[in-house]
């Protein structure tokens, strides 16, 4: 007897394909089209091939912004991943305190990005901000608007405050998924806390940490709103990241062709580095 396949379920997936095509594929094809043309107005444009790509790849703005972006994303990962793991390990596992901790940890994630920038903009001011006023009273010369080091530290601390909760919650869920039998065996063997973490918790968290690293890298590499609101990319270009450079090129200068080529190179960099992260972590897990 031949089994009849029912393909009606594909009709349920069709709206998703249409939504993705409308929101992602069509805009990307438009960007690809812009990246190979020199556009003067809606009716005047000339095909230039890969000229814009060559120009962008030799543009010092791309090199400087890319270096700042990698440094920032590297600092974010080096701070937030270990800190998120440490916070998850100290959170209670049951009872009212566990629920309270989960609520408190979720609060920063619910705040819109532009509001986060505004909060830290006020928080860091020496005249009305608690952080700026406290540092001034302690004799620390702090001014994120004019000092490059202070601007960098403020943007980095702001991102850590905003997104460490995500890493902590992901790690917390991974820790709760570890069967209790592993901990019972560790107690029988009288394993130390470090041994439990090294040989039980950390290996079981690898898949969760892969997700956390990927999410935090992609998000930090595309950061725009928070530093734009806080420092405007300054002082000078000290906190001008790739997204801000792209915005200035597309909106400020209205160079649609170079901006389209810049955005595709930007996308390919994120895709490449994310693939490298994924390959390295999964290959290490297979070993």
TrEMBL record:
A Pfam match: BPD_transp_1
Annotated keywords: Membrane, Transmembrane, Transmembrane helix, Transport
UniProt entry tagged with the keyword Transmembrane: yes
Top-level taxon of the source organism: Bacteria
Gene3D superfamilies (alphabetical): MetI-like
GO biological process assignments: transmembrane transport
Gene Ontology annotations for the cellular component aspect, listed alphabetically: plasma membrane
Main localization category: membrane
Alphabetical list of InterPro entries matching this protein: MetI-like, MetI-like_sf, Sugar_ABC_transporter
TM segment ranges: 12-36, 70-90, 97-123, 160-178, 207-225, 259-278
Subcellular localization: Cell membrane
Topology relative to the membrane: Multi-pass membrane protein
Domain spans labelled ABC transmembrane type-1: 66-277
Annotated family: Belongs to the binding-protein-dependent transport system permease family.
The protein's name in its UniProt record: Carbohydrate ABC transporter membrane protein 1, CUT1 family
């Amino acid at each position: 007897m031949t089994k009849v396949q029912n393909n009606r379920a594909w009709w349920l997936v069709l709206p998703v394909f249409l939504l993705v095509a409308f929101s992602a594929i069509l805009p990307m094809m438009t960007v690809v089209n812009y990246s190979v043309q020199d556009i003067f107005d809606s009716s005047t444009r000339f095909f230039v091939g890969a000229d814009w790509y060559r120009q962008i790849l030799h543009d010092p703005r791309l090199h400087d912004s890319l270096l700042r972006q990698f440094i920032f994303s590297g600092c974010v990962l080096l701070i937030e991943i270990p800190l998120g793991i440490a916070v998850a390990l100290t959170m209670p596992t049951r009872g009212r305190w566990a629920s309270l901790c989960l609520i408190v940890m979720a609060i920063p994630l619910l705040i819109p990005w532009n509001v986060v920038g505004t909060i830290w903009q006020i928080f860091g001011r020496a005249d009305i901000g608690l952080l700026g006023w406290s540092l001034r009273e302690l004799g620390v010369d702090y001014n994120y608007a004019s000092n490059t080091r202070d601007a960098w530290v403020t943007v980095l601390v702001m991102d850590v405050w905003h997104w460490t909760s995500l890493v902590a919650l992901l790690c917390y869920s991974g820790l709760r998924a570890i069967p209790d039998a592993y901990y019972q065996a560790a107690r029988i063997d009288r394993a130390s806390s470090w041994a439990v973490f090294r040989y039980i918790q950390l290996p079981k968290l690898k898949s969760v940490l892969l997700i956390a690293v990927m999410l935090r890298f992609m998000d930090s590499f595309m950061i725009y709103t928070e530093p734009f609101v806080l420092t405007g990319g300054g002082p000078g270009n000290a906190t001008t990241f790739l997204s801000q450079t792209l915005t200035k090129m597309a909106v400020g200068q209205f160079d649609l062709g170079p901006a389209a080529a810049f955005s595709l190179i930007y996308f390919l960099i994120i895709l490449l580095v994310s693939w490298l992260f994924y390959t390295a972590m999964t290959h290490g897990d297979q070993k």
